[in-house]
TrEMBL record:
PROSITE patterns: TAT
InterPro entries recorded: TAT_signal
Name the record gives this protein: PknH-like extracellular domain-containing protein
Amino acid sequence: MTIPRTTGHPTTDPGRTVGRRRLSGRAGLALAGAGLLAATGLGALGQATPAQAAPSAPLSTVDLLQSTDVGALRANLGELNQQQTDLYGARTVSACTGEAGLDSVTGDKTLVSLGSTWSNADGENRALVTEAVAQARTPAAAARAANAVVTALRACQHEPKGHWRYGRVYHGPLRDGDHVWLDAIDGNGTVSGGVAVMLRGDRFGVVEVSNAVGDGDDAIKNTVLPAEQRLGG
C-alpha cells in the first residue's frame, strides 16, 4: 500500500474544533516543569524503568496500528480502509492539542516520531483513529514526555457545558509497559471515543478514537491494546 504523507489531523466533528482552537495556547501547560507534573499526580510515571535499559530498535511503520488491527475493531470503529502516515514526525497529538506536535507539547526536540490516521475513504463512516508514536533518547526522557502529554490532555477536561471535553484519567498513574486513557465526551454528554497515552521503555505513544461506532469507552479501550502491543515492538 502506498502511504501518502499527511500534514494535518482531519476531523468531521464540529465540537472538536472548539477544543483545538482553545488548546493552541494550552499546550504550553505541559512545559511548566516538575512542579506542575507533581500536582497532576502523574509525577511517578516511568519510575520503574531501568535507568540503563538498552535502547529499542528505531521506529518504523510496523510500530503503528496495521490494517489487521483496525479491521478486527469493526464493531467499535466501523470500516476504516484508508491510512495516511507522516513519516517525518507526528504533527498532531490529539484533537485537544490541535496542530501541536509531540515536540511542541513535550518540549523535547530530540524525539523521533511517526504519525498515522485511519479513516473511511468513501466518507461512509465518520470514525477516525489518530496515532502518534515516539522514541526518546532514554526511558526517563520518554516517561517525562508521556507525562507532559497527559498534563496537556488534562487541560481539556474542564470545558463549558455543551462543549466537547475529555473525562477523567483512567488506570493511572501511567507505568512503564502500560497506558492510561481519557474518554472523549461530546456536547450532549455522550462518550464518542477517547484518547490513550502509552509508555514502553524509551518509546511512548498517543492513540485517539473519534466518532466511534457504538460505545466510545469500549472503542478507546479496545483500540489501545493492539496499539500498545505494536509500540512494544
